[in-house]
């Protein structure tokens, strides 16, 4: 029997934070670079490692395999996945440890962000994907108000080994946190197999093991949303994770006024930011916080980040004004 939610959540966060806590080793430039890319979790995942022999291939295969396991757990479109079955039935008995961690941690970030991170927005996503953007403002509002009855992270219940929804018609999406967890799991596998320098990149959700083999930090460029051939910032990270949420890639309508990051408090697409980048201790954390901060907007987002230890952010609002947390400068490249 699992512990009650509050105890389990606190224990889980200690485990997650510990993931990125180990110290980097000294530079080892004699190591060879290995890299591979596969299609997983509705994106391309690239794993880069430095190793001294062919064991790198075995480690990368194991890390990719672990991420594949996560895809089978968290996909809401695969009829064999646990997430699909939870959405279909409204409950799930004896969920796997992976799904349990995902749901419990999602609830943790929902509470931390005051509800701006909420995995129960799937009914709203379905509504917009079904053509809500073609309706009049009055019809949009009426349909959103009706659908909001099925939205609310506090309607997810955990009792022992059972997860269940508190209202018929609820559905969840793990799109704002599952990739981050999968990246963390890939990093854990790589570490367990002796990799001391590496990076896992799942469509922009990234986590690193120490630095590159030459001792230099990993470089992560943030694209200019108005010109993807340019970058607005280059971040330098070692042993940290980084994720960006943005509204310039996935829209429901041709006019690009309705996008996939929904504000769970309004039912409409979040409209204060075009990009929110978070740097933190692990990828599950930064994945969830990037979504939440994007929805919250610059003022509330910066305030939240400043209240958290070892977390930094870079935000671009709809006017193309940039905002940075107080400690971000130590990660910004001076080139």
Question: What would you say this structure looks like, in words?
Answer:
With 335 residues, the chain is α+β, with helices and mostly antiparallel strands. The chain has one domain: ApbE-like domains (T-fold, Roll), CATH 3.10.520. 35% of the residues lie in helices and 24% in strands. The strands form three sheets. Strands 1-2-6-7-10-11-12-13 form an eight-stranded antiparallel β-sheet. Strands 3-5-4 form a three-stranded antiparallel β-sheet. Helix 2 packs antiparallel against helix 7 and helix 7 runs antiparallel to helix 8. The longest helix is centred in the N-terminal third of the chain and has 20 residues. The radius of gyration is 20 Å and the shape is globular. The chain starts with a helix and ends in an 11-residue tail after the last strand.
Count of DSSP-assigned helices: 9
* Strands side by side in the biggest sheet: 1-2-6-7-10-11-12-13
Main beta sheet, described? 8 strands, antiparallel
Radius of gyration: 20 Å
Total domains: 1
- The CATH architecture would be Roll
What is the CATH class designation? Alpha Beta
**How much beta, percentage-wise?**
15-25%
Topology-level CATH name: T-fold
Structural class: alpha+beta
The backbone outline, from C-alpha atoms, is globular
In round numbers, the mean pLDDT is 88
Compressed to H and E, one letter per element, the order equals: HEEHHEHHHEEHEEEEEEHHEE
Helix content: 25-40%
Residue windows where pLDDT falls under 50 for at least 5 positions: 1-22
> How many angstroms does the end-to-end distance come to?
53 Å
Total number of β-strand segments? 13
């Amino acid at each position: 029997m699992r512990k009650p939610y509050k105890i389990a959540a606190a224990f889980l966060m200690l485990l997650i934070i510990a993931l990125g806590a180990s110290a980097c080793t000294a530079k080892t430039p004699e190591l060879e670079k290995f890299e591979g890319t596969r299609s997983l979790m509705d994106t391309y995942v690239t794993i880069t490692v430095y190793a001294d022999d062919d064991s790198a291939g075995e480690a990368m295969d194991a890390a990719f395999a672990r991420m594949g396991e996560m895809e089978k757990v968290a996909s809401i479109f695969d009829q064999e996945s646990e997430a699909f079955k939870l959405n279909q039935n409204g409950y799930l008995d004896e969920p796997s440890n992976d799904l349990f961690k995902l749901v419990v941690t999602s609830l943790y970030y929902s509470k931390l962000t005051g509800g701006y991170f909420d995995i129960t927005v799937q009914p709203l996503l379905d509504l917009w994907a079904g053509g809500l953007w073609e309706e009049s403002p009055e019809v949009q509002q009426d349909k959103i108000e009706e659908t909001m009855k099925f939205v609310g992270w506090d309607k997810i219940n955990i009792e022992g080994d059972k997860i269940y929804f508190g209202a018929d018609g609820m559905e969840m999406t793990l799109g704002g946190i599952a990739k981050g967890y999968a990246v963390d799991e890939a990093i854990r596998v790589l570490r367990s197999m002796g990799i001391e320098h590496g990076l896992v990149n799942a469509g922009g959700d990234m986590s690193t093991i120490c630095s590159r083999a030459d001792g230099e930090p990993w470089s992560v460029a943030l694209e200019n949303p108005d010109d993807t051939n340019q970058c607005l910032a280059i971040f330098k990270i070692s042993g940290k994770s980084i994720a960006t949420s943005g509204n310039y890639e996935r829209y429901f309508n041709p006019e690009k006024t309705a996008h996939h990051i929904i504000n769970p408090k309004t039912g409409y697409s979040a409209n204060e930011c075009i990009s929110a980048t978070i740097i933190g201790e692990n990828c599950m954390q930064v994945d969830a916080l990037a979504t939440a901060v994007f929805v919250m907007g610059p003022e509330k987002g910066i305030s939240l980040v400043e209240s958290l230890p070892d977390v930094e952010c870079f935000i671009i609002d709809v006017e193309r004004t940039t905002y940075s947390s107080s400690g971000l400068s130590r990660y910004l490249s001076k080139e």
